[in-house]
Design brief:
The structure holds two protein chains of two kinds. By secondary structure, chain A is an alpha+beta fold. Chain A is built from 15 helices and eight strands. The longest helix of chain A has 34 residues. The longest helix of chain B is centred in the N-terminal third of the chain and has 39 residues. Classes of the chains: A alpha+beta, B mainly alpha.
């Protein structure tokens, strides 16, 4: 069509560039978080994530050796060594240094600093230093602030800390398993119940069928906010209380309208001949359903399963109301992240990693099953 | 017991109970209640077939009734009552009046209206743009996949992602939030804490939802665009219409129905929006929305009357879309 219009090349370039911009705009926020989750806290605080692949100027706080290393040179007591090696800072070039937190880059490398008590210190670019004093050194080594260009550094430490630390305030391992515990039953149970109902609505004739389909469509948009209080009261009064049972039931119910709707729409489209032939051959509805309709409906079942999985995995509100009690033993990942936002708002290495642990599973499911997701969306909304 | 183990057991048990229920109820119906033999065989088969649909439907109807239909009625009732001592007392519309007089509620209502205008419009527009552009290029499928990706990310995850985008460091330090870095790079004088600037911060929250929903709009609209008959477009080009004119006057009118469906679907999502606001500002700095206001009332202030009234307002706002959806579904079934 474009060649009919006659100016294909310039327009095509414009399209390529606009799409590239759009994709970049949509990808950048997530990319920022992903990159941040592999950086150290110092690096995150030191520069934007987009600067991560480049070396950056960083300010380090190091400490010289203590009085153990002290030698005597004439009248002077001397401590010598290499500041960078002693602190395990690696092979860096020092660009400036200082001995006070108020002015961390007071001296250039090779200069000598006069400190209180008549001490002097000389620090070279490669980190070798000489600390002299007229009196014997006491206590710990001297604090030194060093500015150096640090090569880019990526680490898995954040993930180790988030996944394997025992600290329940920042550890995600427990929340991860809790989320999984909520998600799997809440995905599987509604499918079966909905499939039978969808079959009845699609292939069985009975009075009130159209009304029921309309009711399902109506319930599709009923905000679940309405259900919170009445159901919490119901759960408390019949003894389920707050816990997994309650959240499984709630998710099953809240997913039900979509499940019935999607599956019915799909089943209605199955070839009529197959089902009628089976009936003529004497198959009961139960047999037709389990042997013919259910296997043929696999794509729709998969679509709904993905929707329900994503929705239950990502849910916060239902878990807050029906699952999480005061003990905090049943917290899910979304809740844990909100907590971290409150308590560790500035610690991006923790936040980014925790968030990525939580969104990695849906992302894998998304990229692996995208075909079914798209098919489900189309079946669910295009009229 | 370990909850994970409990989960596995419940899955197996639930599946067994479901299958057991459907199988045995059918068996009982066919063998015991209306056996297809004896002198009334024919009549019995007919009767069994009248009952059977309800056997298939029963569990789903039970769940839908108890968990979705009953709460609508119960919430309506609760919104008209007030806790007095240990019991509840009918107070008419007092809760609604009290709510209306709260500045925080009006703020929430106003903000929700703002969301309602901006988010569906922006998501649909971006989605339409992305759908139209990606349909014409070789790597369109990859581009689509990447724009669609935020769909899989939780609102809470998205909140963290965008908080990093909006992050602000004091002047003089390197900015780590990309928005402030760009703002300063373009000549801004001081880093802004974007989420605390009243009124405009609403738009920074909305951006998160637009970012998530654009992929949805794109997928659906792209399918609709592909369904447009080629001849109409070709005829327009032959008649000398430019690409913009073809898009706005030939393509868009033909997919208007789908655009409307996308619009209303996103509208419903917007009305229920909770997680993003809860995680990012918790309604502070004049960013309150109805769902978060209601959550505040229910679980922080423990005022179930006013909380339920808030929920009813959301329901009321959803109702026109509900009616329209039902109307369309019925039209389609005929």
């Amino acid at each position: 069509m474009d060649n009919i219009a006659g100016h294909k090349s310039s327009l095509t370039w414009a399209v390529h560039i606009s799409v590239a911009l759009l994709v970049l705009l949509w990808l950048l926020p997530t990319l920022g978080l992903l990159v941040s989750s592999f950086r150290t806290a110092d690096q995150i605080a030191g520069s934007g994530w987009w600067a991560a692949p480049f070396p950056q100027e960083e300010s380090l706080q190091l400490r010289t050796a203590g009085p153990d290393e002290m030698t005597q040179d004439g009248d002077l007591y001397v401590i010598e060594g290499n500041l960078l090696e002693q602190n395990g800072a690696g092979d860096l070039d020092i660009s400036a240094w200082g001995t006070s937190a108020r002015d961390v880059s007071a001296y250039a490398p090779g200069k000598t600093a006069e400190m209180r008590g008549g001490e002097t210190m000389t620090l070279e670019e490669d980190g070798t230093y000489r600390l002299t004093s007229a009196e014997a050194f006491e206590g710990r080594g001297e604090r030194v602030f060093v500015s150096a260009t640090v090569p880019p550094e990526f680490t898995l430490d954040n993930y180790e800390r988030i996944l394997f630390s025992d600290d329940s305030r920042e550890g995600m391992a427990k929340a991860f398993f809790n989320t999984l515990t909520v998600t799997i039953p809440a995905t599987i149970i509604p499918i079966l119940i909905a499939a039978f109902a969808a079959y009845a609505l699609a292939w069985m004739d009975f009075p009130g069928r159209a009304l029921l389909v309309a009711a399902v469509v109506a319930l599709l948009v009923v905000p679940l906010q309405l259900a919170l209080i009445p159901l919490l009261r119901l759960h408390l009064s019949i003894g389920i209380g707050k816990g997994y049972m309650g959240v499984w039931l709630a998710h099953t119910a809240f997913g039900m309208p979509l499940a019935v709707y999607l599956l019915r729409n799909y089943m209605v489209g199955l070839p009529k001949d197959i089902i009628e032939n089976a009936k003529v051959d004497g198959a009961t509805d139960f047999q037709i359903f389990t042997r013919i309709v259910l296997p043929l409906s696999f794509p729709a079942l998969a679509s709904f399963a993905i929707f329900q999985f994503l929705w239950t995995w990502n849910d916060l509100l239902v878990a807050l109301v029906f699952l999480i009690d005061a003990s905090g033993q049943t917290t899910v990942m979304t809740r844990q992240i909100v907590e971290l936002l409150g308590t560790r708002g500035g610690n991006w290495e923790i936040l980014a990693t925790a968030a990525f642990v939580s969104i990695s599973v849906p992302l894998v499911v998304f990229f692996a099953m995208q075909r079914y997701l798209v098919r489900g969306l189309l079946a669910g909304s295009v009229k | 017991m370990n909850p994970a183990l409990q989960g596995v057991i419940i899955v197996v048990l639930a599946v067994a109970v479901c299958v057991g229920y459907f199988w045995s109820s059918n068996q009982i119906l066919d063998r015991v209640i209306f056996p297809a033999k004896g002198e009334k065989a024919g009549q019995n088969i007919n009767r069994a077939n009248m009952v059977r649909p309800w056997l298939f439907l029963f569990p789903a109807l039970l769940v839908l009734g108890v968990y979705l239909a009953y709460p609508v009625v119960e919430t309506l009732r609760l919104s008209l009552t007030q806790r007095v001592g240990s019991g509840y007392e009918f107070v008419g519309f007092d809760n609604y009046v009290q709510m209306w007089n709260e500045p925080k509620f009006r703020e929430a209502l106003l903000n929700n209206m703002l969301w309602l205008v901006v988010v569906p419009a922006a998501s649909t527009a971006f989605g339409l743009l992305a759908a139209q552009l990606t349909d014409r290029i070789g790597w369109g499928a990859v581009a689509k996949s990447l724009i669609f990706m935020p769909m899989a990310i939780s609102f809470v995850g998205a909140a963290v992602i965008w908080k990093l985008v909006y992050d602000a460091r004091p002047l003089g330090q390197d900015q780590i939030g990309i928005l402030n870095a760009i703002y300063l790079g373009l000549g801004g004088d001081a880093p802004q804490t974007w989420l605390t600037i009243p009124f405009w911060n609403n738009f920074f929250l909305m951006a998160v939802l637009v970012w998530i929903q654009t992929g949805f709009a794109m997928v659906i609209l792209s399918a609709a665009l592909r369904g447009i008959p080629e001849e109409t477009v070709e005829a327009a080009i032959v008649d000398g219409a430019g690409p913009l004119r073809v898009f706005f006057q030939i393509k868009v009118p033909q997919i208007m129905g789908t655009i409307l469906v996308v619009w209303t679907t996103i509208t419903v999502i917007v009305l229920k929006i909770f997680d993003i606001v809860y995680a990012m500002t918790n309604g502070q700095f004049e960013t309150q929305v109805l769902a978060n206001y209601m959550y505040d009332k229910l679980f922080r202030a423990n005022d179930w009357g006013v909380g339920s009234a808030g929920a009813m307002v959301i329901m009321l706002l959803v109702t026109p879309i509900l009616v329209w959806n039902v109307y369309n579904a019925r039209k389609e079934m005929r």
